[in-house]
Amino acid sequence: MELGDAIEFAKSRHQGVVATLRRDGRAQLSNIVYLMAPDGTARISVTADRAKTRNLRRDHRAQLYVPGDSFWQYVVLDGTVQLSPVATDPHDEVVEELVDVYRQLRGEEHPDWDEYRRAMVSERRLVVSFGPASAYGQLGL
Questions:
Q1: Would the pLDDT of 33 be above 70?
Q2: Domains (ranges, CATH) in the chain?
Q3: Are 98 and 39 in contact (CB under 8 A)?
Q4: Distance from the CA of 31 to the CA of which of 38, 56, 69, 102 falls in 20 to 30 A?
């Protein structure tokens, strides 16, 4: 499968499963919501204390599974990640990026941006930027 085709497919969706590697080499899977940027990078909001975040800090390799409309239609993007700092202030760059991700995913404004910003800090959120390097899957079914 061509990487560009897989990225275009993933851009039309927002739910998937991210696979990271545990310390012992076994996969750890997490359902996530993501936003694909025009350049093909997926942005994912995560909390600092989750297993997937700890795994990604140790090993930057990851896979993003994106389901299609049928059981047989799917894409798996294989790549590496960069992690932003943890949000520490309601108006820091990380929170601004989380606001941008929210707006683009939801297509609407949050009813209380001050509350949202405080929650991003209290939840210790950060942004995972996933850069796909290869892909496999099935699109034609």
A1: yes
A2: 3-88+126-138 (2.30.110.10)
A3: no
A4: 38
